[in-house]
Amino acid sequence: MTASLQLYGVQTPGLALSSKRLEFGTKTSSSAIFRTVEHSCRNIALRVSCEAARVDLIERKETETSSLSGTGKELTCVMKFGGSSVESAERMKEVANLILSFPDERPVIVLSAMGKTTNKLLKAGEKAVTCGVTNVESIEELSFIKELHLRTAHELGVETTVIAQHLEGLHQLLKGISMMKELTLRTRDYLVSFGECMSTRLFSAYLNKIGHKARQYDAFEIGFITTDDFTNADILEATYPAVSKTLLNNWSKDKAVPVVTGFLGKGWRSCAITTLGRGGSDLTATTIGKALGLREIQVWKDVDGVLTCDPNIYSGAQSVPYLTFDEAAELAYFGAQVLHPLSMRPARDGDIPVRVKNSYNPNAPGTVITRSRDMSKAVLTSIVLKRNVTMLDIASTRMLGQYGFLAKVFTTFEDLGISVDVVATSEVSISLTLDPAKLWGRELVQRANELDHVVEELEKIAVVKLLQRRSIISLIGNVQKSSLILEKVFKVLRSNGVNVQMISQGASKVNISLIVNDEEAEQCVRALHSAFFETSS
Ligand SMILES: Nc1ncnc2c1ncn2[C@@H]1O[C@H](COP(=O)(O)OP(=O)(O)O)[C@@H](O)[C@H]1O
Ligand SMILES: N[C@@H](CC(=O)OP(=O)(O)O)C(=O)O
């Protein structure tokens, strides 16, 4: 006896429906079904929602979405507010006023956890591992989180019942962690999810209280389907039609402003809560923008848009009015905290402009990110610093002309699952940096072992030098003017007595990367900023 599933999808939005029938034995495990479904549906946008041991396939009906348009009441944009924008009741009230000050917009709201709640939750989890069950009550961070959310409810004038269950659930979870004396990546994601679950409930209740009808949504319940890479999950294609269906269907029946948790998803295999990596609410926002085909995605921060450098390094950083998706993606990937590294992908795919604005200074124009911009006058756009990078100098032990050397080097990294950031090569030697986000996210011991292992493997074919505590300074801008940029860069660095250890010009044509010692990096950024943005020549 067999069970069969009919899959429906579209190759590209708007094109003809394609469908596929799959047959499984009734004893086939759910994970085997998921694997087959995933394989069969590559590049087919499908509504697949995963529940414990169940695959739910929902037929895509093109008419569903189109029947919602033309009413003049469609959702128009996404407005994402980060932790700094919703850190207190006062800030939430200001954000509500800000939303109401755009009466022509019908936004989907995406919120992060309040202020530094995510950090506090992680700290509480770490303390719970060692403190003993009877001491969980006195974890300082738990008291802080409880007090912050209860006070916020009181100050907003909403019932504390909207968050009571979550506060109790959090307490129980921390007790569980302390009993198990273990905090797995999966539990870590469940733990931090309390932040976004509570901020959205409070905010939505407040909007309703002031007469602006709103409805709270947990992203993991409305189709945010991700890989099972806990703490760093990636959004799967099936998310787009699923999220679109839920939000648009509900909106067509009831015009309540959707308030969605940022940062969270549901692992497609595990069905457990996942997170999209730190700062992941930006990615939630752009995913919703693409899923619903909205006019604009706004990400509201505590700075006047994307700046010419990290304001924590140099307070004179200026706001950048225009960026392309490629520039913004490169900037985020190379460490500018202001945007999540993957957040530009859905916006670029859907060709939806992203506006980065300041919720503390709404009148500032901010930064508009689009597919293209006038580059004729552009030289340097922004300077980004990534610290604590590991660099490897690898020289082949064979003679010049040895083919396959580079392939062997990269196979080693692939086999060990380590990603590489910046590369400079000759035929017999290669210098590269290792992605600190991937490497440093792991436990200290595991990290050291992995580095040893990399060196050990590479030493079979090369002489390897491991150089730690380096920084990548990425110059994002018009690489068509690279000679001009480099001339200025080397003049500045020479006058500051800094030796560049490696240089790489990305094929993306928007980024030149320089590797310097960690101790020299901030001073370099300040000197480069002064030369490029504060002097006329
Ligand atoms: N190039 C840059 N432009 C703007 N902000 C930057 C840049 N580099 C680092 N930052 C930092 O990013 C912060 C905003 O990002 P984030 O804290 O993730 O915002 P939110 O939590 O509001 O989404 C700023 O407060 C600033 O300190
Ligand atoms: N709260 C999560 C997700 C997020 O996006 O936050 P923020 O928008 O405040 O950077 C974090 O701190 O990582």
Tell me the radius of gyration: 25 Å
Task: Report the CATH topology name of the domain at 77-301.
Answer: Carbamate kinase
- End-to-end gap: 78 Å
- The total count of strands amounts to 21
**Which class of the domain at 77-301 in CATH terms?**
Alpha Beta
The ligands found in this model are: adenosine-5'-diphosphate, aspartyl phosphate
Mean pLDDT: 86
Shape: globular
Which SSEs are present, and which pair or pack?
Blueprint: E1 2-10, E2 17-25, H1 30-40, E3 47-51, E4 54-58, H2 62-66, E5 77-81, H3 89-100, E6 107-111, H4 117-131, H5 140-156, H6 161-180, H7 185-209, E7 214-217, E8 225-226, H8 239-253, E9 257-261, E10 264-267, E11 273-275, H9 281-292, E12 296-301, E13 322-324, H10 325-333, H11 344-350, E14 354-358, E15 367-370, E16 380-396, H12 405-416, E17 420-425, E18 429-434, H13 436-440, H14 444-458, E19 462-477, H15 482-495, E20 502-505, E21 511-517, H16 518-533
Parallel strand pairs: 5-6, 5-12, 6-9, 7-9, 8-10, 12-14, 13-15
Antiparallel strand pairs: 1-2, 3-4, 10-11, 14-15, 16-18, 16-19, 17-18, 19-21, 20-21
Bound molecules: adenosine-5'-diphosphate (ADP) and aspartyl phosphate.
